[in-house]
Design a protein that fits this description.
Number of strands: 30
Shape: globular
CATH architecture of the largest domain: Beta Barrel
Radius of gyration: 30 Å
CATH topology of the largest domain: Porin
Structural class: alpha+beta
Subcellular location: Cell membrane; Cytoplasm, Cytosol; Endoplasmic reticulum membrane
Strand content: 15-25%
Organism: Allacma fusca
Protein name: Oxysterol-binding protein
GO biological process, one term: bile acid biosynthetic process
Distance between the termini: 45 Å
CATH class of the largest domain: Mainly Beta
GO cellular component, one term: plasma membrane
Number of domains: 3
């Protein structure tokens, strides 16, 4: 690995004060600052510059001096802002701790390889950012003289380290960045390690044989050779003992893993049982509908719905994604949760379960207590069912070279205005991704019926967490919507209807609104995307709102930050979430913390939080994994209130799409006449990508974007600003009192007559 990060408070990023002083010391006279000037940086372009590395054919074998000192390092949680940390540069390896004394004792908070990291600088602000794949370090150094000194030292150490890595001349074991042993996560890993141990034992036996064949020195002046033989034999004995200990440790871990395997099997059985119940419930519900269809059509309908539910095993992301073993608290949670589910499924006469039931849905007419909503199920959906796979798999990762050429000029900048290669995209748009947040809308249905306000806000928290679950498998970005683009989704099976519209282009703002049987949901999102060298960070700006008219409650919350790591290695890309989410509702507040992945910890993708009352007293504890499950209470008696559903077969080959994601871009012949021409399903470049036509999609994407630029230029010339059709500006119901985009409610009425009286601007 190129970096190590093992600080419990997960330092990463977040702007704050600059109050701490920074100093640096070197073992020799400080080098002169690099001659690069700043006179040419007076344009509006980004001031970020990439610290160049070793060029092809270049060598740098001069060992740089050790360099160390205090710098300011940015942290995200729990103490945001810049904090003093002691950094040490030694032969291209960077380590840091709270003080020089801590570093000298080996008590370091993190380490990374300068040769394998992308280092960007911003001299004007004294900033240095280091993207080491596993984490991003944001540093600030002042005064300017000290900053330039660090810059020059980083350059020298980086060049030397790259020289060593290129020519394979590691002269000392201390020059390598030592990675911790990776815990065994699968039987395959265990077999590979057993094989390696056998090879090592064979080599040791061979070495012992060689040592035995060396004759003992007879002369007194051969003391050095005699000492060497004695020490060599001692080393062999020690190595054999180490190998034996490693083997014993592996066997012990495999035994411990047996219990986890059994728990996993139990969860599989419970999940499949729940899916079977859901399928039977759906068939029963559909069979009870009086649709006046011919018998053959009704049979086909039930068959299509039944086939859309997969029998695949429950996908435990933490165990199958090369993650480390669970902690004891996680194991206790699974144990208590399994017992709870078994009781709730096997006892028909028991009290109503607190587990969210995904099967009990209301009749197929949507009603809302806050409006005169009364939509019947679209008949074509009942007759045709929904698709269960995409037309073509995702393309192989070939975009890295061209992508680097684009991104290297935009480090630290907002990428929302930058046109990206289509191979970086998935065949869904931002508006459709917003709809995916309702994949577990049954949590809102359950919350709307819950009489306890504490339970309601806990379910809202579970809903907020569930909206991120599909991100775990997604490493491509959605298409940026065109101005005026829309997307509707009517889900008779889930009991809601949804509409989204791109209401602003600069900055890009998407607004959506959905209504279920007893709730309303709306949000607006502005995505700020930044590139840091090897990682892309997506920071959503905006709020999510949920209203329960029955209880007169209005909930609002912000969203967490998403980061895609290993951007230039598509097979190794992975997603992390971090940040704090605050859910407000009257006298109750729920604070959630999405924990940034730490390289040295086996606790990954965690989220935890508390529900507090108006006096600040904690009245409920929450925890879980955003890619797996969410619990209320404390282990081992915690209740699972949400668990992620199973993934489709071969999901990794199809953009990591969930079942809902697969369905969102489907455009059936019957639906084609019922949705407006501005709907995302009609977007041609996205459709071509979905069909696997990469060349056509890239060409069409350029055409579509150019048409949008032409429309914007025409509006500017005519002084005719764009006006969204379905949303308007409002100052209602926001935390800060800022204007918000509000749904006007006319879309569904206009939809009834096929949008005949509405002028829709051609987008494609």
């Amino acid at each position: 690995m190129s970096s190590k990060h093992h600080e419990s408070d997960t330092e990463a990023s977040c702007e704050s004060s600059e109050g701490a002083a920074t100093t640096a010391t070197a073992a020799s006279e400080p080098p002169k600052p690099p001659p690069r000037g700043r006179g040419k940086r007076k344009t509006r372009r980004s001031d970020w510059e990439i610290l160049e590395g070793l060029k092809e054919g270049q060598t740098y074998d001069r060992v740089p001096k050790k360099f160390e000192g205090f710098v300011l390092k940015k942290r995200k949680w729990p103490l945001k802002g810049y904090h003093k940390r002691y950094f040490m540069l030694d032969k291209g390896v960077i380590v840091y701790g709270k003080s020089g004394w801590d570093c000298a004792r080996g008590k370091i908070h993190g380490s990374l390889d300068a040769g394998l990291s992308v280092i960007t600088t911003k001299p004007r602000d004294g900033r240095i950012d280091i993207d080491a794949e596993d984490c991003i370090y944001h540093l600030k150094i002042k005064p300017k003289e000290v900053y330039m000194e660090w810059l020059e030292q980083l350059k020298q150490h980086r060049l030397y380290r790259q020289h060593i890595l290129s020519f394979k001349e590691l002269s000392s074991p201390t020059e390598e960045v030592v990675s911790p042993l990776t815990p065994i996560s699968s039987p395959g890993d265990s077999k590979n390690i057993d094989k390696e141990i056998s090879l090592v034992e064979k080599d040791l036996s061979h070495l012992e044989g060689i040592l035995e064949t060396i004759p003992q020195p007879k002369k007194d002046d051969d003391n050095k050779l005699r000492d060497f033989l004695v020490l060599a034999k001692e080393v062999v004995v020690s190595l054999r003992g180490i190998v034996r200990s490693v083997g014993n440790g592996i066997n012990a871990r495999e035994v411990e893993g047996g219990a986890a395997t059994l728990r996993h099997a139990l969860n599989q059985a419970l999940q499949q049982n729940a899916e079977l119940k859901s399928r039977l419930s759906r068939i029963h519900r559909e069979a009870s509908l009086d649709l006046n269809y011919p018998a053959a059509q009704t049979s086909d309908t039930i068959k299509s719905y039944s086939s859309s539910m997969s029998n695949s095993e429950y996908y435990d992301a933490m165990e199958t994604n090369k993650d480390e073993d669970r902690t004891s608290s996680d194991e206790e949670s699974f144990s208590s949760e399994g017992e709870g589910e078994a009781d709730s499924l096997n006892s028909e006469n028991s009290e109503p379960s607190k587990f969210v039931d995904h099967t009990h849905l209301e009749p197929s007419v949507l009603t809302s207590s806050s409006s005169n909503l009364n939509i019947k199920i679209p008949e074509p959906l009942l007759r045709e069912g929904r698709r269960t796979f995409l037309p073509a798999p995702a393309p192989s990762g070939t975009e890295a070279p061209s992508l680097w050429g684009i991104l290297r000029k935009n480090i630290g900048k907002d990428l929302s205005k930058i046109s990206m290669p289509v191979t970086l995209n998935e065949p869904l748009g931002v508006l459709q991704r917003m709809c995916e947040e309702l994949e577990y809308s049954e949590l809102l249905d359950t919350a709307s019926k819950e009489s306890d306000p504490v339970e309601r806000i806990a379910l809202i928290a579970a809903f907020a967490v569930s909206g991120y679950s599909s991100s775990f498998f997604r490493t491509h970005k959605p298409f940026n919507p065109l101005l005026g683009e829309t997307f509707e989704c009517v889900r008779e099976d889930k009991g809601f209807r949804f509409l989204a519209e791109q209401v602003c282009h600069h900055p890009p703002v998407s607004a959506c609104h959905a209504e279920g049987r007893a709730w309303q949901f709306w949000e607006e999102t502005q995505l700020k995307t930044k590139f840091w060298g090897k990682s892309m960070e997506i920071q959503p700006i905006g709020e999510v709102h949920i209203v329960f008219p029955k209880w007169g409650e209005h909930y609002s919350y912000n969203k967490a930050t998403t980061c895609v790591h290993n951007l230039f290695s598509p097979p190794n890309r992975w997603v992390d979430l971090y940040g704090e989410v605050s859910i407000l509702s009257g006298g109750l507040t729920c604070n959630l913390t999405f924990v940034k992945v730490s390289y040295w910890s086996s606790r990954k993708h965690e989220v935890f939080g508390t529900v507090v009352n108006a006096e600040g007293v904690t009245i409920r504890n929450l925890y879980g994994h955003w890619n797996e499950a969410f619990y209320v209470g404390q282990p081992p008696s915690a209740r699972c209130i949400w668990r992620m559903g199973t993934m489709p077969e071969d999901a990794s080959k199809f953009y990591g799409f969930t079942r809902l994601a697969i369905e969102l871009n489907e455009l059936s012949p019957s639906l084609r006449d019922k949705i407006p021409g501005t709907d995302t399903r009609f977007r041609p470049d996205q459709r071509l990508l979905e069909e696997g036509n990469i060349v056509g999609a890239e060409s069409m994407k350029m055409t579509v974007e150019q048409k949008q630029r032409d429309r914007r230029k025409k509006r500017e010339e005519e002084k005719n600003p764009f006006q969204p059709l379905w949303f308007k500006k409002s100052k209602n119901q926001t935390r800060s009192g800022e204007e918000q985009w509000e749904f006007m409610g006319t879309y569904w009425e206009v939809r009834k007559n096929g949008f005949k009286n509405v002028e829709l601007e051609p987008l494609w």
